């Protein structure tokens, strides 16, 4: 046991765990979109569950235990059950290759570019010392005040993105009626 403690100093463990959870999150996120194992959307949804759970591990490393629990319960639990219900309700057969319409591709690329531009603009405008640090770890009252006060617009944007994701799941998994 002493030799193991000598190999991994106690101060390096959180850094190592960050890289493990970050790598798992990125890996599972890539497997959601580019799944080489199966064309079945249920498999991609399961990889999304694993990505959400590994993201909860990142929250635990930040000592945000409430956010980690909410991440697992709400997103890995409720939202993914809803996605899987929609996917299974539509009874998807083997996915056929669809032709990509150039107008939709252009609109998608324009949307991604706009979101990336807004993200970069917001990142440049953010100061690192702009937010007060919580007095105690896991202070949910402060989190609620910040979330529904100062950050109400981003909170609503995330809810609209979840709605768009649900519509995307429905559109990607519906049968061609032609």
Could you walk me through the main structural features you see in this protein, from its secondary elements to its overall organization?
- This protein is an all-alpha fold and 178 residues long.
- The protein has two domains: 2-95 and 137-173, Four Helix Bundle (Hemerythrin (Met), subunit A), CATH 1.20.120; 102-126.
- It contains seven helices and no strands.
- The N and C termini lie far apart (66 Å).
- Number of helical runs? 7
Q: How many beta-strand runs? A: 0
Please indicate the percent range of residues in DSSP E strands (runs of 2 or more). under 5%
**Helix-strand pattern, N to C?**
HHHHHHH
Name of the CATH homologous superfamily of the largest domain: NADH-ubiquinone/plastoquinone oxidoreductase chain 6, subunit NuoJ
Give the overall form. Answer: globular
Q: In brief, what are we looking at here?
A:
With 178 residues, this protein is mainly α.
Topology:
Blueprint: H1 2-7, H2 13-33, H3 41-61, H4 65-89, H5 102-125, H6 140-150, H7 152-173
Helix pairs in contact: 2-3, 3-4
What descriptors fit this protein?
7 helices; 178 residues; Four Helix Bundle (Hemerythrin (Met), subunit A); 73% helix; mainly alpha
């Amino acid at each position: 046991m002493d030799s193991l403690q000598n190999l991994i100093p106690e101060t390096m463990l959180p850094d190592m765990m960050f890289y493990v959870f970050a790598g798992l999150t990125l890996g599972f996120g890539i497997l959601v979109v580019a799944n080489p194992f199966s064309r079945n959307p249920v498999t991609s949804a399961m990889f999304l569950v694993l990505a959400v759970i590994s993201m909860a591990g990142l929250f635990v490393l930040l000592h945000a235990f409430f956010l980690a629990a909410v991440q697992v319960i709400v997103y890995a639990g409720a939202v993914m059950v809803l996605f899987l219900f929609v996917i299974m309700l539509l009874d998807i057969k083997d996915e056929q290759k669809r032709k990509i319409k150039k107008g939709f591709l252009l609109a998608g690329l324009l949307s991604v570019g706009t979101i990336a531009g807004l993200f970069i603009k917001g990142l440049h405008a953010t100061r690192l010392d702009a937010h007060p640090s919580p007095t105690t770890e896991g202070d949910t009252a402060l989190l609620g005040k910040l979330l529904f006060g100062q950050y109400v617009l981003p909170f609503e944007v995330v809810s609209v993105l979840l709605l768009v994701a649900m519509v995307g799941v429905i559109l990607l998994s519906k049968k061609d009626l032609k």
